Amino acid sequence: MGTFFSISVVVVVVFFLCFVHSTDYAHALTAPSDISALKAFKASIKPSSIPSWSCLASWDFAAADPCASPRRIHFTCGLTCSPDSTRLTQITLDPVGYSGTLTPLLSQLTQLHTLDLADNYFYGPIPSSISSLLNLQSLTLRSNNFSGSLPSSIANLKLLQALDLSRNSLSGFLPGAMDSMSGLRRLDLSFNRLEGSIPRLPPNLLELALKGNSLSGPLSKSSFDGSTQLEVVELSENSLTGTLRSWFFLLPSIQQVNLSNNSLTGVEISTPAAGQSDLVAVDLGFNKIQGYAPVNFAAYPLLSSLSLRYNRLRGKIPLEFGKKKSLRRLYLDGNFLIGQPPATFFGGQGQVSGSFGDNCLWGCPPSSQLCLPNQKPSSICKQAYGGKPKS
Q1: Where among 109, 143, 175 does a domain terminate?
Q2: How far apart are CA 184 and CA 86, in angstroms?
Q3: pLDDT category, 6, cuts 50, 70, 90?
Q4: Under DSSP, is residue 296 helix (H, G, I), strand (E, B) or coil?
Q5: Which of 23, 249, 309, 316 has the fewest CB atoms within 10 Å, i.e. is most exposed?
Q6: What is the pLDDT of residues 187-217, one digit of tens each?
Q7: d(Cα 300, Cα 321) in Å, to the nearest integer?
Q8: Are residues 100 and 114 in the same domain?
Q9: For the whole model, what pTM was predicted?
Q10: Residue 2 belongs to what H/E stretch?
């Protein structure tokens, strides 16, 4: 009797646990549309590029459901599901060298808010159907081999906050409707093959990075209309031309600017109203800027780093630069500056680092690191000034 009772209890307990498990699994089933999208996503990746220990290797649709838990063997990483375990909300692949194309069927993952495939070998175009991911907040395809143009339909992603497509092979022009992406805060399209001018920017953008492309023409004020929150502008290594007008440095939130390695020929600097500015760092090195060193930079109260190296500047180093207490880095090398540098730079306190070398200065103390490399030969300086440069 006792043995029969014990066996009966065990059977009941096992049946109960199986019932609970099957019930939980039934409620954990991922939406069929999400499963078909994931299957297509994995099928578009070359099997030879999927290491046995990687996230994708654990995606076994025959053995488990993507959102079922616990994930001890299958779907161990790379995916995040909604609280009710029915929809995919995040795909974040490990950077192990996956190689393949991006399937248009990803558009079925309509609850996805994060897609991160960075540091792999995905190639081919970015499908325009990605614009159907209306809940997407972060799109990171950095350091792959995507090519073709940036789909204009990407402007439909109104909730997108961060877009990083840097270090690919994207070409063509920037979409003209990018200003409609009202949620975008960070945009990085650096190191691609983009060309043309910069369209009007999203109004709430904080950081803009477009370095290492083939953007051309002058910077237009209309591109930055409404950019009241823009803090960081990284446009180095392009083909921008013309004069950088004073409105640019008066953008209300601007803090860091890098426009080095372009073909700018001039720069206008206005004094900020009531001395109010958050500008901290400016790099205009390796352009073709002519004229005198822009003294009005000294009126920006927080400026600590300024580079105007390897341009075509003439005249003396402004005394105001030597009096500016916030300045910590100053690069003026590779110009045609003349005269004697302000003595305040050589007070022995070592407050400012940088270089005044490769100019036409005299009286620059050879013992100071600021005076390296050596000044230009006098013959070059005379030729640049049409005779002996005047002090």
Answers
A1: 109
A2: 28
A3: very low
A4: helix
A5: 23
A6: 999 999 999 999 999 999 999 999 999 999 9
A7: 11
A8: no
A9: 0.90
A10: helix 2-27
